[in-house]
Amino acid sequence: MAIVDQAGPVRNGEELDIERLEAFLKDSIPGLNGEIGVRQFPSGHSNLTYLVVIGDREMVLRRPPFGYRAKSAHDMGREYRVLKALHGSFPYAPRPLAYTEDASILGDQFYVMERLTGIILRKDPPPGLNYAPRQASKLCKNFLQVLLDFQALDYNAVGLGDLGRPTGYVARQVSGTCKRYQAARTPDAPHCEEYMQWLEDKQPPDTDRPALIHNDLKFDNMVLALHDPTRFIGILDWELTTVGDPLMDLGISLSYWVQPGDPPEFELIRTIPSNMEGMMTRKQILQLYEEKSGHKVEYYDFYYLFGLFRMLVVVQQMYYRYYNGQTKDERFKQIVQMVFILEKAARKIMARSDL
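Above: the chain's sequence. Below: its structure in token form.
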């Protein structure tokens, strides 16, 4: 079994216009020669990701999903701009190659970037890849260091000073995420009113150290070196990047962490191998973050619970598309159960929080 993600046939209903795509790419990227081939990466539930091969050149194409999507989500232009700004100054940013808003080509905006060949960790390591406990611990430490390195970037110096508005950032995130849930809620999903009110009431004041925020930094959005599966070589999925409270990124990352001692049903929502022997716990990562950043993390329960709610909303948006017949992807059929699991877990944490 290969440990590198393999692209497969394009899913029904998500096909691309090959002739128009080939003409655009050969006109936009110098040196492309040969026939075009397009396959689709099967993982990922939000933006659609394709492997495009022209001659011996491998590229990755990303476009928004077909059907419903949140107004501010799936912004390929934003992702392309971020990569152009970061590539060359931040070693984990892949090189962007081309972007267009011309919907006559593929029906929506899209961009193409270089392909990074490496390992992407999903729910469990790929067959043939085994981590010793010391390697799992090193993986966590390296992950945290990448997050800290990203937050230490001078966003003005790289040309992204106008990417976001730090003042009022957390309040806007809470308000916007709640509105997105209400817009995507289906009759068979929970109301989450208590959850949303808690986030509104318990949010922290504006940060005094704004930073770049990836907004979805987790193992399956990162690429590991083939010869060293503890060393990261790339970060993917940049369309939500902005400037704001860096602890929001920490909370979002830890919201994906499922570890021993969590409610048994959390295993159903686990998407990364955070339960491997030797992996650091959320508490240990938080302590190491405080130690390396030199900042005490206050309002931790808020940041973590916001991360869980954000995940809940993303899942519900996916389910909304399936519920309303806007996608035929059968992976979405039962995911409303994840919404209930996340909402139940959040209520337990809210009840014991001292915020």
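The chain has a mean pLDDT of 93.
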